[in-house]
Amino acid sequence: MADIYIRGGFIITVDSERRIIRDGAVAIENGKIIAVGKREELDKDFKEHSEKVIDASRKIVMPGLIDLHVHMAQAMIRGMAQYVRLIPWLKDYVWPLQGNYTKEDGKTSALLCMIEMIKSGTTTFLEVGLSGRYGVEGIAEALEKIGMRGVLGRHVMDTPGYATEENIIHSGLVETKEEGMKEVLYMYQRWHGKHGRIFVWFAPRTPGAVSVETYREIVAKAKELGIGITMHLAEVREDVEYFKKNFGMRPVEFVKWIGMVGSNVVLAHVVWVNDEEIGILAKTGTHVAHNPSCNMKLGSGLTPVAKMLRAGVNVGLGCDGGPSNDNYDMIEEMKIAALGQSLINMDPAVITAEKIIEMATVNGAKALGLEREIGSIEVGKKADIILVDYWKPHLIPMFNPITHLVYAAQGQDVDTVIIDGKVVMEHRKILTVDEEKILEEAEKRGFNVIRRAGIKPKINWPVI
Ligand SMILES: [Zn+2]
Fold first, then answer.
1. What's the CA-to-centroid distance between 196 and ligand 1, angstroms?
2. Ligand 1: distance of its center to the CA of 72 in Å?
3. CA of 364: how far to CAs of 69, 80, 144, 264, 358, in Å?
């Protein structure tokens, strides 16, 4: 007897043996996976005795994808910062836009983002930059309702800068240290661990916006509460200069010096690092979130992922944000990650599709400290599972479910999404929220935000 019985298709388990089961089956009960195997063997126990039977023939069945770096508040300003490098991208576009959000805008943007993530196979995410302005409570409520698994990283800052420049954060986003710390603690008490799906982390802003003392306080508090910390680091070359000039250190030496390394730390981007720094990350068990679309679009450089993996660093994958990617499609991001490593190393064998899938599943789970619960299809794990329809011209013949998934599939091929043992999307219909209503709300609110910020979309051709 099972609540849900998935039968047929290729099961990419990403279990400890990395088994791929042809014509496989998975049974789910009380939110957990209770059986995985060949369909013909599991059918006798579950086919006639399950509440819901899902036909997965002509589908790839795999663990839900884990997006290790998401800015949910940026979904509603997609495409509004084009053709600029990181600092003007933040200063002239993203911060003024986000600095004009209301709490309802923040919630609508988060819902829009989560719908997009579910529809492209993401079941768990790490949100890396919530400010009070976006209404953190409302975003947690939206997460609870939509049924995803998410870690909400709440910003803390105490000076309004970013590395190379001072006083550049938009006034609408400036907060005191007390506001940030207080809300992290409030959110922790109210939401952390709720339903086993919602978690709260510290997400300090980058150096320049946070003093060394505050970083140390965050590190101590995170340790005390047993929660994680995520921060952007060494995203652009200017960051290296900043650390050298102000601290006489390399970026990773700096985070080591303030104590922000270890198994509860996820550093995002980590593009401009040398071999010694990669060694520190590996030795301390510090995780890296790789966001190739963003790095390429903003011309920032590209994280040496293949080298990091070889050195033993745990690297996951992220889509980053609406104005930097410009979508939240992890299947597309897997391809871009693979292509990027081949390009910078001028070696098509430097990374395999198997490694890329690990980044988007088990590595992400490990980075979030959830490796015992999610990331693979194994008995005892929580049932976060997606079905990818391969009966499509771009996926037939199905010679190789692994490379087809990374190099040929698209987010839109995701057919059904199960999170925590509940069907959240079936045949591309979201079951937990009203998608159409949220799209209408986002269309309206998005145009109001850009009007208030006084920023127009950059279209170089005449719109008549
Ligand atoms: Zn980011």
1. 25
2. 10
3. 10, 29, 21, 12, 8
Residue 144 CA to ligand 1 centre (angstroms)? 23
Interval between CA 294 and ligand 1 midpoint (Å)? 8
Strands 2-7 and 50-55: parallel
d(Cα 389, Cα 376) in Å, to the nearest integer?
Answer: 19
Structure tokens at 338: 């693979």
Give the C-alpha distances (Å, rounded to integers) separating 51 from 3, 30, 391: 5, 12, 26
Tens-place pLDDT, residues 49-75:
999 999 999 999 999 999 999 999 999
> How many domains are there within the chain?
2
Q: Both tokens of residue 384? A: 């976060």
Give the confidence band of 165 by pLDDT, cuts at 50, 70, 90.
confident
Q: Residue 69 C-alpha to ligand 1 middle, in angstroms?
A: 6
Q: Is residue 435 in a domain?
A: no
DSSP 8-state class, residue 64: P
Q: State which residues form the domain around 202.
A: 65-367
For the chain, what's the residue count? 464
Instruction: Say how many Å lie between the CA of residue 82 and the centre of ligand 1.
Output: 16
**Rg from Cα positions in the chain:** 21
57 & 94 share domain: no
